[in-house]
Amino acid sequence: MPQAAVLETSSGTLHLDRTRLxxxxxxxxxSFSDGGLHASTEAAVGRALQLVEQGADIIDIGGESTRPGxxxxxxxxxxxxxxxxxxxxxxxxxxxxxxxxxxxxxxxxAIEAGASIVNDVTALxxxxxxxxxxxxxxxxxxxxxxxxxxETMQKDPQYVDVVEDVSWFLEERARYAMGFGVPRDRIVLxxxxxxxxxxxxxxxxxxxxxxxxxxxxxxxVGPSRKSFLGMLLDRPVDQRLAGTAGAVALCAxxxxxxxxxxxxxxxxxxxxxxDAVVWQV
Length: 281
Known about the structure:
Elements: E1 5-9, E2 12-16, E3 20-26, H1 41-54, E4 58-62, H2 75-90, E5 97-100, H3 104-113, E6 117-120, H4 130-137, E7 141-144, H5 162-179, E8 187-190, H6 199-207, H7 209-213, E9 220-221, H8 227-233, H9 241-254, E10 258-261, H10 264-278
Parallel strand pairs: 3-4, 3-10, 4-5, 5-6, 6-7, 7-8, 9-10
Antiparallel strand pairs: 1-2
Helix pairs in contact: 1-2, 2-3, 3-4, 9-10
């Protein structure tokens, strides 16, 4: 059975005694998953409220696409996309709001606006000030493995042993975060499915979720609509719902505490079935 955990946020204690759903809100014109469907403030806020109604336990708001090959977004543009959405969402929902960014200033402004989690796909490597910001704020931080930057991360990624290499990286990043004052119980690890990995690398990481969960931190996994599902199933991004459901069920059964998903309503049913069997709730 997966190990229960808790995550302390400014919005309250999130008990990880069952699989929690992080709902994705992309305030971007070029997201791989929705192609800019929620790029405006109004659309993004509406989507966030819809995801909470469908059962999201966390809302993750991002203003820069990190899909392979995506260009970087200037700071002021990302702030203009993200902060108005965070401000309005935190006033309207009771669940924690996460900001998906590697820029320290975006994180700082989002925290001031009420965000209670920082989700950094670079694991504090993308901006030298990020560790100081999250350490000072004492907010939970998601540390994700990636072969940064997106422009090159999918160009022949190689590992000696992908699970061992990713595990070592995540442990080192957790120690680094704690060195800047981030409490251990506010660190979440993410193996970074699709971020500098081949199909086989992704499958190996999913297969060895128990090994990653055994590192002793809450584990977040994001398989939703990813390209490895397209490779396996020969499906475009808008036809990967069933494949995502299979991956989410596997993640939940093997010990992931949080799954980051786009289709919250459907994935809520998936994890409820798994939780009834595995977590017995």
